[in-house]
Design a protein that fits this description.
This protein is α/β, with parallel strands linked by helices and 508 residues long. The protein contains 21 helices and nine strands. It has helices at 8-19, 26-29, 40-65, 79-88, 95-108, 115-122, 126-160, 176-187, 204-218, 250-260, 271-282, 303-306, 340-353, 362-372, 376-385, 391-399, 409-427, 430-439, 449-455, 460-472, 491-503; strands spanning 193-197, 223-228, 232-234, 240-242, 287-292, 315-320, 330-334, 476-480, 485-489. Helix 1 packs across helix 7 and helix 3 (40-65) packs antiparallel against helix 5 (95-108). The longest helix has 35 residues, at 126-160. The two termini are 57 Å apart.
Length: 508
């Protein structure tokens, strides 16, 4: 409902209808903050309960502020005690207390009273009482308007979040300075291409995701589009192939973006025509378009040049472990490793989540940090391994890796993740391994338990046990809501799973 249509006159009319047990104005039955029901009778009940609750809550608040006893249990009150309570509300000469009191006893109390009766009880003129009633209507109208505005904001936030992947985190460590930096880049009128860069597992997607949800909450942009990078799947025969509708090129990105914008009829145009159509569409409102994992595009290094005609029209945000700093139109943001303190906090949080009473000592954390640094995903994987492998053994085995044989940090980093995942694979039972491989062929956005069951050969009991293992070892993210959980492979899990199949240490 439009908030301008919520007026004191409409609230007054509604209260009068409530008193006479008639159907209230249809407009207020359609308030967005009211629960949606199948019948108008149910809507009427919710509306009555809402107005009465607001009035009672404010009446109670102002009574307490004036040091008055607040008693209105209508199951035990008599007419006399009700009248005494009303007369007390006029002792303090608090205009708002009097306003809420008149509003309540005029229409919402059991029984209700005429203004003439209330004026006699309060010891004031009917004119004075009517002024307080008008004030009460204004106060109630203001609150109903604000509740409707909040409902509109929530509806808007839900709409803007519809393309975003569900968050798979409950707490962020060391992210606030980065989020503030990213917020400043987004709000900078000179920023049109922003590239969030860093190693895999460093938190680029999480950072972009959290920033996108913050944008959805403040509602400053007309729409937010999220396009996820290419994912590969393993067929039943063990063949590795691209997922359906995989994003592998700039053209794929343009087609996916047009589809999410509701412009599917344009996806078969050539690239230049699509760019021209996007210029027209995006120029009509403020859009944010996010491409997660830009590096998967075969033409990722020419991609920004292709989008140059869209500069100054829409805001584009990329995540990538390939840098775009050589493009003058792109503002880059490097995601660093977590500090020692934040790394320790993350690891302890993961251990406590798994049921440990506390985390690890500072001395042990120093040894671990010296080996793996502040890579969030690596810390989560190691926390999961600690359920079966002593931390000292994990540190020793990681320390014994021949990192000196690798030419640069990126290759060392890949070797470390490969080692951690291979160790985790050894800890899984056969059912968990079977489920892990089968999930490689499912949607990277997430799948419910029914899809996991239909895709594999495990019965319900073994599926549940296998899924618990994959979650415990941080190989699978749980996304969605508590009532409708979805499960998906972490991108690095999928990448290293593919490497394991190719390398032979994971068999079909």
């Amino acid at each position: 409902m439009e908030t301008d249509a919520i007026t004191p006159a409409l609230i007054d009319k509604t209260l009068q209808k409530i008193k006479s047990m008639e159907k209230p104005p249809i407009e207020l039955l359609n308030l967005d903050f009211l629960p949606k029901t199948k019948t108008q009778v149910e809507q009427f009940i919710y509306l009555y309960d809402c107005l009465r609750s607001i009035t009672l809550e404010n009446l109670s608040t102002y009574r307490r502020l004036e040091g008055l006893q607040d008693e209105y249990d209508e199951k035990s009150l008599t007419n006399e005690s009700i009248l005494v309570a009303f007369s007390r509300d006029f002792i303090r000469h608090n205009a708002k207390l009097e306003a809420w009191s008149v509003l309540y006893y005029r229409y919402l109390a059991l029984p209700d009273f005429q203004l003439e009766e209330l004026a006699i009880i309060a010891g004031c003129s009917r004119k004075h009482l009517y002024r307080r009633y008008v004030m009460g209507l204004a106060l109630l109208t203001d609150i109903v308007r604000r509740m409707e505005i909040d409902a509109h904001l929530h509806i808007r936030q839900f709409y803007l979040s519809r393309h975003l992947p569900p968050p798979n985190y409950t707490q962020l460590f060391g992210m606030m300075p980065l989020l503030e930096q990213l917020d400043n880049l987004i709000l900078d009128q000179g920023s049109y291409f922003i590239s969030i860069e860093g190693l895999n597992g460093i938190g680029k997607t999480t950072l972009a995701q959290e920033a996108a949800y913050r944008l959805a909450k403040n509602g400053k942009f007309y729409d937010i589009i999220w396009v996820s990078g290419r994912q590969e799947i393993v067929s039943n025969s063990g063949e590795i192939r691209p997922a359906d509708q995989a994003i592998q090129s700039s053209r794929d990105f343009l087609r996916k973006t047009l589809k999410l914008l509701g412009q599917e009829h344009l996806i078969d145009l050539d690239t230049q025509q699509q760019i021209e159509k996007l210029k027209l569409i995006l120029s009509k409102a403020d859009y944010v378009i996010i491409l997660d994992h830009l590096e998967v595009l075969k033409d990722d290094q020419v991609f920004p040049s292709l989008l140059t005609p869209l500069a100054e029209i829409a805001l584009f945000v990329f995540t990538s472990h390939h840098t775009l700093r050589h493009y003058p139109t792109v503002k880059t943001m490097i995601v660093p490793e977590l500090s020692f303190t934040n790394s320790h906090a993350l690891l302890d949080s993961e251990l406590i989540r798994q049921g440990y009473e506390d985390g690890i000592s500072s001395e042990a954390m120093v040894d671990l940090y010296n080996v793996i640094g502040g890579l969030p995903l690596a810390l989560k994987l190691i926390a999961a391994q600690m359920r079966k492998i002593p931390l000292e053994q994990i540190i020793n085995e990681l320390s014994n890796l021949q990192f000196s044989a690798y030419p640069n940090f990126k290759s060392k980093y890949k070797a470390m993740y490969a080692y951690i995942h291979r160790q985790t694979w050894q800890l899984l039972d056969n059912h968990a391994r079977q489920l892990l491989v089968s999930m490689f062929s499912l949607s990277p956005q997430g799948n419910n338990i029914q899809a996991l069951h239909a895709n594999g050969t495990l019965d319900a009991e073994h599926l549940e046990s296998a899924l618990d293992q994959l979650i415990d070892y941080c190989l699978v993210d749980v996304v969605g809501s508590a009532s409708k959980p979805m499960y998906r492979l972490h991108r690095i899990t999928a990448t290293l799973l593919q490497a394991g199949i190719n390398g032979g240490w994971i068999s079909q």
